């Protein structure tokens, strides 16, 4: 049995702000249980729902010196859906209304988290062979493992795997501050280790010290080695190319299942898709006050409203998108200017634009089910899960060909009928608009091709089965000791022994 510990800052069903939580909450369930014991360690945020917090059981507590204070750390555990979760309790750090705050505070609390996780391990009666870190919040775990924790034999030979979910976020602050929080010597703050562009960089520390690096699609694994997508770390990623692979994300096919989805007014499968989607569309139009017409082309957006997701292109083209023959339903929160953009158009065209500026899991499912197309013109997209959810619900994604979007959406070919969506290559508003118009023409004038594609989209397999096998192979590889190469006997040595 190989023991693997996932460490992350968010995870469904406890706490979610984006796709990271979906991945950390679903992937552990898909490993071969005969061979892998995969557990998860998270902060015990006070903003986790009471119903979940009340099911956590206290295991132990201890104190560490951190940032001039002696800090209490509690460790709790809980089994959920067959997976064991550990929680690091510190009301001082995780008592806020949201998992993240400003960068300075986040740096302080996640360096604390990294230290607390490692300190807790010898006390929980379970030793991981691999610690699988996710994103910058866990960046110092491989560094600490190389440093102060080496003194304890418990940690010898624990390997690390580091998954980049989004290279944009790196946990960067001035060297003095991070050095003091981390209590690391000057040795670590040079350009081949944690220093980058005159600052200290937690993600870089993780990427330098981890045994293997993964990211969440094959295309993104290539893109981040280029200057455009590399966010200043492309040189390091090129240098570590031999230890870097892309493994595309899956989604939880049990949770995102239109045939059993309690959020839907009418559940449906690939055979009942046409009637099912029609009924869900009318129900959503009714609920949101849009004109009730099942034949109107409906585009959905469920997203963090940030630049990453391509909203400056959408902004530029809103007049053209919001034509009388189109409905647009947006669910999202984020940058104020984008929230206002959608509110403005919803006010102007109440019959055909709906701006739902909040976070709601059930509403997201209703949108994935009711819409005909799903718009995701990202500037960059490490993987993207929303397009996978759309495919699962028979809603055709309109995407830019980048990262995971390129790897998971096959563009429509009107000559062969192939495809599961629509895509464009350049980050250009007109290219996006042409693609939306092409999708709309196909919907209105070649419905048979559209419906065939929607059925095909539902039949794609983006469950975790294939990708979990790839992670298992990676774990196998990282745990296999390098072969011992015996020095070849030289002619001289041979003749010496013969004499
Ligand atoms: P990212 O992690 O970059 O935000 P992903 O596509 O990987 O993008 O994952 C986004 C996840 O967050 C999906 O599960 C999506 O349904 C969900 N999501 C985003 N915004 C909202 C919202 N306002 N309400 C409900 N779910 C949302
Ligand atoms: C990040 C990325 C997104 C990816 C998710 C899960 O939030 O922005 O593309 O799907 O992580 O890996």
CA-based gyration radius: 25 Å
What overall geometry do the principal axes of the alpha carbons give?
A: globular
Task: Provide the CATH superfamily of the largest domain.
Answer: Glycogen Phosphorylase B
Strand content: 15-25%
The largest beta-sheet arranges its strands as 3-4-5-2-1-6-7-11-12
Count of discrete structural domains:
2
Number of strands: 18
| Count of discrete alpha- or pi-helical segments spanning 4 or more residues | 19
CATH topology of the largest domain: the name is: Rossmann fold
CATH architecture tag of the largest domain: 3-Layer(aba) Sandwich
Distance between the termini: 50 Å
Q: Helical amount among residues, as a percent range?
A: 25-40%
Q: How confident is the prediction overall: mean pLDDT?
A: 96
- Chemical compounds bound to the protein: adenosine-5'-diphosphate, alpha-D-glucopyranose
- The low-confidence parts are none
* Level-1 CATH class name of the largest domain: Alpha Beta
Counting helices, strands and paired strands, the structural category is alpha/beta
Question: Largest sheet, described in full?
Answer: 9 strands, mixed
Task: Please provide a brief summary of the model.
The chain has 19 helices and 18 strands.
What does this structure look like?
- The protein has 499 residues and is α/β, with parallel strands linked by helices.
- Helix content is 37%, strand content 20%.
- It folds into two domains: 2-246, Glycogen Phosphorylase B (Rossmann fold, 3-Layer(aba) Sandwich); 273-458, 3-Layer(aba) Sandwich (Rossmann fold).
- The chain contains 19 helices and 18 strands.
- The chain has a nine-stranded mixed sheet.
- Strand 16 (373-376), helix 14 and strand 17 (396-400) form a beta-alpha-beta unit.
- Helix 10 (273-288) packs across helix 13 (361-370) and helix 16 packs across helix 17 (447-459).
- The longest helix is centred in the first third of the chain and has 18 residues, at 103-120.
- The structure holds adenosine-5'-diphosphate (ADP) and alpha-D-glucopyranose (GLC).
- Adenosine-5'-diphosphate is lined by residues 18-20, 22, 302-304, 331-333, 359-361, 364, 383-386, 389.
